[in-house]
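Field log, afternoon session.

UNIT: design team B
ACTIVITY: writing a sequence onto a fixed backbone
BACKBONE:
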């Protein structure tokens, strides 16, 4: 069930162009929650790879990334209150776990936040906590992140909204998540330089994900086409981000420009990709508005 009643104005062409605050909260909630899940999963993938060298510096950065993921999910939780009505409804929504994907989404988010709190606390007491316990907590975060993505995908695959009830919906959510993760580890410096082997791998992955995102949007029945300004702006910013990631993947430069420890080109590419994903998500909800349910 869609969780918000919408009141929109229409343009002179009859297309609805303005989302109300409830729908905007869904846009922000979805993007932040999926980005948090993607950043967690990408970071864990890197840490679990034997060839990745873990130093004291990277350990400190990983703790900051874990904290960032927690903040993203907490903000998404607060934003969710706008489309659930009140915080009280958040807990009431857990009453239908057997039949409601909304309830399962909230449960997944709750578990993710719970495990994240514990994981962040272990960073201050790592020398006192058995490694096995830390591994269990991180595994709990990983499973919760995957469950969250699955729940969000199933929640929006509604028979009453044909444009959503396709594999394009989970594809879009997973691409958003993985793209956020790949872009985030590049500009934060978890991968020391974009020109390292790891940097090239993730820059190439980000390029491929942007390409898949554009293909997914173009081939998505019921979504806005080339005549829609939002689509064109989103496609342009996505293409520019893809070009930057492709440049980073093949660049021979050994040193990226840094500002306060942030690597400039990956940051610019991340921002452009984020703008493209935000515009794509607006089009996603406009498809619901055009359905008229």
């Amino acid at each position: 069930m869609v969780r918000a009643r919408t009141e929109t104005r229409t343009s002179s062409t009859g297309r609805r162009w303005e989302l109300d605050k409830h729908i905007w909260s869904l846009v922000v909630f979805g993007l932040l929650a999926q980005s948090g899940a993607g950043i967690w999963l990408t970071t864990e993938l890197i840490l679990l790879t034997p060839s990745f060298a873990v130093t004291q510096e990277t350990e400190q950065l990983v703790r900051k990334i874990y904290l960032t993921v927690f903040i993203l999910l907490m903000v998404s939780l607060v934003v969710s209150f706008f489309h659930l009505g009140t915080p009280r409804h958040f807990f009431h929504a857990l009453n239908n776990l057997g039949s409601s994907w909304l309830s399962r989404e909230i449960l997944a988010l709750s578990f993710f936040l719970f495990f994240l709190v514990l994981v962040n606390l272990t960073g201050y007491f790592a020398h006192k906590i058995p490694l096995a316990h830390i591994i269990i907590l991180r595994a709990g975060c990983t499973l919760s992140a995957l469950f969250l993505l699955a729940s969000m995908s199933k929640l929006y695959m509604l028979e009453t909204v044909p444009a959503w009830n396709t594999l394009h919906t989970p594809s879009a959510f997973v691409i958003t998540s993985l793209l956020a993760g790949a872009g985030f580890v590049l500009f934060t410096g978890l991968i020391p330089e974009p020109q390292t082997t790891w940097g090239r791998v993730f820059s190439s992955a980000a390029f491929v994900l942007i390409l898949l995102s554009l293909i997914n949007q173009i081939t998505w029945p019921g979504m806005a086409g080339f005549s829609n300004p939002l689509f064109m702006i989103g496609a342009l910013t996505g293409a520019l981000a893809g070009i930057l990631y492709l440049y980073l993947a093949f660049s021979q430069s050994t040193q990226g420009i840094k500002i306060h420890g942030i690597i400039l080109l990956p940051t610019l590419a991340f921002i452009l990709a984020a703008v493209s994903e935000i515009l794509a998500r607006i089009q996603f909800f406009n498809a619901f508005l055009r359905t008229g349910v």
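LOG NOTE: Confidence is low (pLDDT under 50) at residues 4-17.
NEXT ACTIVITY: expression trials, pending approval
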